[in-house]
Amino acid sequence: MNGNNENNNEGLNAVSLGSVDNSNQNLNVPINDIPPVTPIPEEEPMEVLDDVPSVTPEVLNNEVAVDNPAQPDINAIPEVQPLEPVAPVNYDIPEVIDNAPVFNDIGTVPPISDIPIVNNIAESVEPIKPKKKGMNKTLFVVLIILALCAVGGGVYVLLNKANKPPVQTKLVKIEAGSSVSTDIDDYAIFNNIDSSVCNFDTSEITDTNTIGARYRFRITCGDKSYWGNATIVDTTKPDVTLKEVNASVNEEITAEDFIAECKDFSKCSYAFKDEAKLKEYLSTPSSYHVPIIVKDESGNEVEVTGTLIVSENSVSTMSLKCSKSNDKYEELNKFGLTEEDNTFNKLTKREYTFKFESKDDYEKLRDENKDKSEITYSDITGAPSFDDEDLTLTLTKKIAYSDLVTEVGSEVPTSYGELKQFFESKDYTCSLGYY
To answer: Which CATH superfamily is domain 239-311 in?
Structure first.
């Protein structure tokens, strides 16, 4: 019975699963040969009644009368009607892995065309991104705003251009001391009109040397005239040439001592950028770079750097005094002498003394410059000192050795005797004196 059940289960599985592979063609099982199904055993053995007649295979297909019809035999198998024969079913014997059957292929697979296999549909199909309605709306609004701005700007330009007069005069500035321009485009802006059909008149600009002066000019186009103003200004910084200064320890020097020449339309003034640093330099013998601020009367300024050489040689109270006179002033040079051997230490102090015939002229000059540490008179600049009794003005300045060489046209002797003879040969009167 058990053997029949095993064959019965195998046949049932084959019929249920169908044909998998055509490789095993010799295994054909007819449907009609399926044996009866073995009943499922009960969990507990049933008690066998003595009065129940035994059931034999011969009476399976016949009705059996029993003493107790209300107690059917649970082991009785109902009659199974035979099925019509069908075509043989081909199936594969499954491989057994760990005592469990595994089917490689199930069913008959039809031919597959060259369609790419998609392993993961969720990954291969790109999700449809929602449209950014907010972004599109913002872009649309921006484009509208830009278009409105462009239209508004165009309208503004057209209206502004239409409202402009054909000729707009400029605020002309003429540099002091320069010539008057002859280019009409320097005096006006021409709108929708060719400047060549116009002419201009600058005859009222008579003097460009007066800083701050204002003059009128006129531009005429056909029968219309347009007036403008030109102002004389000074915007040019001073052009400065420097010279080297030699000084002894703790000697007093001025910013002008470093200036060989200052070219500017107006007067130049000079000042040390750092007075405290200069005093520090003068306390120790060495060579230094000294920053100096040069400014003109219009406020234009430039910073220059002079060279200062501080020497150990101290200025002696003794000096070689050489003087001579001319129609304008008396010149006195004091050449410093060393204490050791009375040789020239290359330090020179020069005094220019002017004698006034008119007391009024003298007092006027004195009152105008009484609070100034440096003035210019008769093209000579120096520290002023006034003598009311003699009606004289004395301007004192230091002369660098390089300037002295330039003046005399050669090197200056350093020994006392040669130095005295040298300047006496140039019409100076020399004597030993105090510095």
So the answer is: Immunoglobulins (2.60.40.10)
